[in-house]
Amino acid sequence: MPENLLIAFGLTLIAGLATGIGSMLAFFTSTTNTKFLSWMLGFSAGVMIYVSMVEIFVKAKDALVGSLGNQMGNWLTVGGFFFGILLIALIDKFVPEQGNPHELKKVEDISKSNGVKTDHALLKMGSFTALAIAIHNFPEGIATFTAALQDPALGVAITVAIAIHNIPEGIAVAVPVYFATGDRKKAFKLSFLSGLAEPVGAIVAFLILMPFLNDVMFGIIFASVAGIMVFISLDELLPAAKKYDEGHLSIYGVIAGMAIMALSLLLFI
């Protein structure tokens, strides 16, 4: 696993910086391609759900059953899974409502701003959104890092899925901040910084978890990662995809994400 350390950090950084891509889209495109974004968010959810339940949960179970026996291993796997769900749900609950990153924005909202004077309420909303996204990104960074550390190919799949879902989060930060200030640099900076919470999560995982990373610890972490990713998919990605949707594109994206993930697991992992 130590030989995968740089790969794991690199993949986590890529996933986090995708929020910056979202803010750049807000500045350099005139309209949001809602059909494409809906399909891609659905695709990301499909990848996350499939890889969590078919690959990550199973690897967690194998590690825990192998170390602790059939009964204890199975119970601990299920417990870790629902602990991950509880952890991300609590984070979601305590995020300030006005800064919730689930609030969708479109890049064409930028055009409504003249940037003449600062709207402090909007600036506060954008800042809270950046903080909220940073809080959400922290456990995602731990998930990406630990997955890539154990299996770089699996880490790539998770990185792609999380990066896709970080793009609209970048838009959600950039639009209200630019709307309030007319300052593109400030909007991009806040969006960019919120994404850096993911590599910070990786650093924390490295410093705190790595010294204790045996089969039991790995199994518990992986089970929790599966729970976190399933919750993100059901609570964030699919609702966002349906809001952008015009028909069944989001569900087609989910199926495509599952199919491509299944194929990659069969061929490459």
Describe the structure using short key phrases:
269 residues, mainly alpha, 9 helices
Structure description:
With 269 residues, this protein is mostly helical. It has one domain (2-267). Helix content is 81%, strand content 0%. Helix 2 (34-68) packs antiparallel against helix 8, helix 3 (70-94) packs across helix 8 and helix 4 crosses helix 7. Residues 98-102 and 113-118 have low confidence and may be disordered.
List the helices and strands and how they pair.
Elements lengths: L4 H24 L5 H35 L1 H25 L25 H31 L1 H30 L2 H12 L1 H13 L5 H30 L4 H19 L2
Helix pairs in contact: 1-4, 1-5, 1-6, 1-7, 2-3, 2-5, 2-8, 2-9, 3-8, 4-5, 4-6, 4-7, 4-8, 5-6
- Summarize the biggest pleated sheet: none
Distance between the termini: 16 Å
Rg of Cα set: 19 Å
* Helix fraction bin: over 70%
State which percent range the strand residues make up.
under 5%
Compute the number of helices: 9
Order of helices and strands: HHHHHHHHH
In the predicted model, the low-confidence regions spanning at least 5 consecutive residues are 98-102, 113-118
Number of strands: 0
Which class do the helix and strand fractions yield?
Answer: mainly alpha
Shape: globular
Overall pLDDT metric = 79
Total tally of structural domains: 1
